[in-house]
Amino acid sequence: MIEFCGVSFIRDGKTILKDINLKIKSGENWLVLGPNGSGKSTLFSMLMAYRISTTGRIMCFGREFGKDNWSQVKDKIGIISSTMEKFNPTFFNMTVKEILISGIKKTIGIYDEVTKEEEETVEEYIKEYNLSKLKSEYFKNLSSGERKKVLIVRSLIQKPEVLILDEPCASLDICERENILDTLRKAKTDLIYITHDVEETIPKITNVLLLKDGKIFKCGKKSEVLNSENLKNLYGIDLNLTKKNNYYSIEVNARR
Ligand SMILES: Nc1ncnc2c1ncn2[C@@H]1O[C@H](COP(=O)(O)OP(=O)(O)OP(=O)(O)O)[C@@H](O)[C@H]1O
């Protein structure tokens, strides 16, 4: 589905990504972990052509970046990242329901008539993702977690083949975080989930990519990659990763 072949990204003489070779297959859900500045966002923003690789090839859904029509590829990818925040001023004065309708229409506002079918689809998503109480609220009146959730559902309504989430739970309290994770547990699309918090690894995650200094440190099946040893070496800190009821948590041993 997605393939990076020898991808590097160099800016201002600094190597930000080096020789990335990675294959992501349809049906897999990936967790991406790595220290600050390890290149996680840069790597996946290339799929949306927000950043262009210096060397290497990027293939997605049978097309190659730079050779084929990439807008058709982007249409199949949903992305939730801080870059979405630039649309907040437009979203602020729209209701949750209007934002979801704009998702179906793939526009930031609503510029043409809403069909009965579109209306029904939006109502289905509102019901499925428990947004009934919020549907008439203005985006500006929502909490940050509620806004994130609405944007995720807006993305899901477009039925992307893959949804890239770049730290969707950053700065959310436990309750709002669980609300987001619950939305993702229900989502019927492949996920690429970038985070700093291993506790956000929902059970449907199948594969893990660990990035360090712009290089692949480890990557593969969750059961082979997500362990104390690898995370210790990734972050250079003595820690213990434990798993309970299919969820992970970290204990830092260096604390006194
Ligand atoms: N266009 C650019 N020009 C120069 N430097 C860049 C550019 N894009 C990213 N960088 C740098 O590349 C490095 C990797 O950034 P990136 O945001 O991809 O890392 P990250 O792993 O997602 O970090 P974080 O976890 O802190 O969000 C950072 O040092 C960043 O400042």
Automatic annotation (TrEMBL):
SUPFAM superfamilies: P-loop containing nucleoside triphosphate hydrolases. The keyword Aminoacyl-tRNA synthetase does not apply. Keywords: ATP-binding, Cell membrane, Membrane, Nucleotide-binding, Translocase, Transport. One of its GO terms (cellular component) is ATP-binding cassette (ABC) transporter complex. The keyword ATP-binding applies. It holds the Pfam family ABC_tran. Signal peptide: none annotated. PANTHER family: ABC TRANSPORTER ATP-BINDING PROTEIN MODF, HEAVY METAL TRANSPORTER. Belongs to the ABC transporter superfamily. This is Uncharacterized protein. It comes from Peptoniphilus porci.
